[in-house]
Amino acid sequence: MKIVEYSWMKRTILLTGAAGFIGSHTALALVKEGDTVIGIDNLNDYYNPQWKKDNLKKLSTYQNFKFFESDICNFSQMEKIIKNSKFDAIIHLAARAGVRPSIEQPLLYQEVNVGGTLNLLELARQYNVKSFVFASSSSVYGNQEKIPFSETDPVNRPISPYAATKRAGELLCHTYSHLHHINCICLRFFTVYGPGGRPDMAPYLFTEAILKSKSINKFGDGSSERDYTYIDDIVAGVVAASHLKRPFEIINLGNNQPISLNDFIKLLEKITAKKMKIKQLPMQAGDVKRTYADISKAQKLLGYEPKTTFEEGLSKLVAWYSAERL
Ligand SMILES: NC(=O)c1ccc[n+]([C@@H]2O[C@H](COP(=O)([O-])OP(=O)(O)OC[C@H]3O[C@@H](n4cnc5c(N)ncnc54)[C@H](O)[C@@H]3O)[C@@H](O)[C@H]2O)c1
Question: Which tens digit of pLDDT belongs to each residue from 273-294?
């Protein structure tokens, strides 16, 4: 395994989406390393904004964390923040996330995920920020048959507006890297879960349902598979990527161990010693059949090594949900 050594120098980082799931965990890891983090989030109501504020409250105990409630779509608002500090890197995680809602609101997804990303790249150019990490998604692979998904696979067939906006973000990163010599690292996250996880995603929804004895909507016959990746592993990959000095890379961050929906439900029943109530529904439009990450590039370039098995991670999610949300 390649050992990745970080520079000893403390950095100043602009982190978008800082109040969200992955953003708040990433912010915590960075401030603990001693970096100064300027967090941005518009605290929108895609899910309960109070949970985002709770994430920020935990971060507010660190003097090297500062927060601005602002919208990445508002260029002049973002410019005021960026021009007032000398940033070593931008870690851009803010987005409209979620596949199914993107079918209902494609214009909003385009505005935030494409327009907002372009605003940040353009400001990085204008204010000489030389490192840019972009949160992309496994959804760009669409319904490709070949497994595992590798960064060199063609990704010209997205099947949701969300996936298309994430691919557009990658292409804009490449353009800015090529034209303006900004180091751009695009990370394709594979279904991230864990404590504080997004409440619209299956790990959270299923945990909530089984603990509250409610039924879940099960889409399809249960053979669909996801490469669930634990939050701490993703954060380690994001932090490592923010140190990587390369002009342009696309890197998968997954777990390399897909789990079928049926096995997921069985495991949750085992962990909670409860039976899941199931409402059977057909596969949803926009949902891919399977995700499965080839992580050899992340291993080589980032020293990335996912440490958390799905059973361990799901147990931690169940424990967290029981303590914080039940
Ligand atoms: N969670 C996953 O499994 C997963 C998988 C693939 C990619 N991603 C990507 O990772 C990133 C983080 O995802 P997450 O799961 O933490 O989602 P999240 O919704 O918890 O976090 C995103 C944050 O961005 C903020 N935001 C949205 N629009 C904004 C705007 N216009 N201006 C400022 N802030 C705005 C939201 O308020 C939210 O706090 C996203 O880019 C998402 O697309 C996530």
Answer: 999 999 999 998 888 899 999 9
User: Which of 14, 16, 28, 42 to mutate for ligand 1's pocket (most ligand atoms within 8 Å of CB)?
Assistant: 42
Q: How far apart are CA 184 and CA 133, in angstroms?
A: 6
Q: Which pair of structure tokens corresponds to residue 199?
A: 């409440």
Total count of domains within the chain: 1
Residue of 162, 193, 228, 292 marked active site: 162
Q: CA 147, CA 68: separation in Å to the nearest integer?
A: 41
Burial 185-222 (b: 16+ CB within 10 A, else e): bbbbbbbbbbbbbbeebbbbbbbebbbeeeebebbeeb
- The CATH number of whichever domain residue 60 belongs to comes to 3.40.50.720
- Domain-embedded: residue 64: yes
Is 78 domain-assigned?
yes
Range of the domain at 37: 12-194+231-256+292-306
Query: Which pLDDT belongs to residue 1?
Result: 46
